[in-house]
User: What shape does this take?
Amino acid sequence: MTAMIFDSFVPNLSPAGKMGLVVLALLAAASGSVAVLRRIQPEKDYSEFSTRVWSWWVMAGIFLAVLAPGHKTALVFFAFLSFWALKEYLTLLKTRPADHRALVLSFLALPAQYYLIAIGWYGMFIIFIPVYVFLCLPVVLALSRETRGFVASASQIQWGLMAFVFGLSHLGFLLVFPLNEGSGVDGRSMLFFLVFVVEMSDVLQYLWGKSIGRRPVLPAVSPNKTWEGLIGGVTCATLLGLSVRFLTPFSAIETAGVSLLITLAGFFGGAVMSAVKRDFGVKDFGSLIPGHGGVIDRLDSLCYAAPVFFHYVRYFHN
Amino acid sequence: MTRSTSALRPAEGASAVLLSRPAISARMRLRDLAQILFFALLVRPLMAIFIGRRAPGRQWLPGAGPFVLLANHSSHLDTVSLLSLFPLWRLREIRPVAAADYFERNRLVAWFSHTFFNILPIARSRITPENNPIQLMLAQLRAGKSLIIYPEGTRGSGEEIGPFRPGIAHLLEQMPRLPVIPVYLVNHGRCLPKGEWFPVPFLCEIRIGPPQVFSGGNRREILKRLRSAILSLKNADN
Assistant: This one.
């Protein structure tokens, strides 16, 4: 239906271009509602809401700007996001002085992983961190000759690499992934679909949870994630996913199924990162994004949704 | 008062600096330019994008010298990070006090330390009236320059703050109204610990406290107060 609206107004726009317009319209609507709420309820404090919306403008602006020129700029940007997420995680980790060289290795593995994406070498992209880095990291740790805390360091560093480098880098591989010919969409529009549905699911779960949320799903991990928020958010995000089906080669039923799959994966990603924060004893991973926290606080859902979505597409649409 | 150096020396030291200035001013300007380019093109972008350093309490940095930045020390990154707090045109006013036996250990290291960091080399042993560190520092302060001093005297592990050397208290005895700005450097030692040459980009922070101004008090009290000012910055987040 959205596609029909577009065809009547701007007929020759690419799917990604249409999506850019959808995003801008949504942001304008969000800013509009901040203004309206402030007008009708001037006694209430909407500063957090307003900060969040402003941050969304900036994030969406950067996202659209790096995706416009082509794959290379987008890959550099995703590498930077991975880099910052890994930084945030490792900074909160209790590392030992003996871990120094293993950490240097982790930060060298990051550009290597994104280079493998840039040259489109799928076979190496998919085993580099789970196999080769996994084997090398403990060797480097062993060479430091400090055995106390060895297993903890090896596992914690590897976990960070898996979540924030390997997991997130699937966003990048979507861009260069060759889809079925004749599907009429490219990797960029698939990436758009994934990021849009997952991020909207986050926003909608937050809004539903804030307004009617009562029963927490995982009270010990994250009291803010409620059943009301989860069901309301996932349902609305799935409907939103259907409305941007023009980005994908999926049928209507498949679009709904995939949207459900990635929003649930995103929910569990958020829950896992909340558990990590609980363990570290912090509220946010960082403070780079005003109103949102650190980069991981914004990308937690995508760390899980990106690999799930990518492998679904690779299995069924290659 | 059992200090070996008399209070008469500072005037001599200051005039020596003033006299030696015109002769080397052209080279000095080239050096300033080299330092400005080094910080503008390399250090500042790296601190912002690679390290991601934040500096809460920036408002406490004085707009003009002389003052002393007093910081904990665990990494070569410390001086790089502290100098990048200042606008480029003020870099030449700030002199990190550095151990001559380490930072002038060979010609390459000495050239690098002087050109890009404008260090004030001081002797750690065999002190003579000519190389007395206190007099050298006083001369700089009286000429309007500011100093970065690591009162622990050397790089530590990054976890504990070591005992303070008395130098800063000697300076305050000679210049009682000298503002001392306590600074705590977070995670710098994790990024680039002693003995390592490749940094790991942990998120870093410089916590700057309000300037400490002393009116009298003995050396031990001064050192104690300065140490607790830095410790309270260290404990500010827990």
Notes: The CA atoms of residues 170 and 306 of chain A lie 6 Å apart.
